[in-house]
Amino acid sequence: MSLANILLVDDEVPFVETMTKRLNKRGFEIISTHSGQDALDQLSKRRGIEVVILDVKMPGMDGIQTLEEIKRRFPITEVIMLTGHATVESAIEGMKLGAFDYLMKPCDMEQLVSKVEAATQRRRSHEEKIIQARMKEIASRQA
Predict the structure, then answer these.
(1) CA atoms of 57 and 65, how far apart (whole Å)
(2) Can you give the CATH number for the domain in which 29 is found?
(3) 3-class secondary structure, 70
(4) Residue numbers of the domain that contains 114
């Protein structure tokens, strides 16, 4: 079993290829896409995705728009924003919209792994609470 199921979203193909290899070596399951719309499609198809690593600056649907839609449709999925120097304000805006955290590109791999692990833990904790609440509701109906 992987340490986490991650969706990596960035329009820069070489960056995605490199990050996918580096995260796979650390035991993560990676699905990669190159646009906001593709990310939403993958999240709809693959319910097991726990964390999205999302570039802020992309053509078409940018990272902020993608984040808003992820949080609307998949509220417990955690999102880590990646940003260049010019888009720090966007990353902060992302935090206000529900992103777990953000990192500057190029990011330190150990820092990214640490944030992914923390985001995965939070996602799993939320999921467990939802399951417990549903079980409690079912049990109370039967009583």
Answers:
(1) 10
(2) 3.40.50.2300
(3) helix
(4) 5-142
Cα gap 1→14, rounded to integer Å: 27
CA 45 remoteness from chain centre: 15
Element spanning 116, H or E? helix 109-142
Encode pLDDT of 3-62 as tens digits: 899 999 999 999 999 999 999 999 999 999 999 999 999 999 998 999 999 999 899 999
Q: Indicate the pTM of the whole model.
A: 0.91
Quote the CA–CA distance of 23 and 114 in Å, as a whole number. 12
Q: Can you read off the two tokens belonging to residue 31?
A: 């699905």
From start to end of 15-116, where are the E strands? 29-33, 51-55, 78-83, 101-104
Contact 53, 112 (CB under 8 A): yes
- Total domains in the fold of the chain: 1
Place of tokens 């923390």: 118
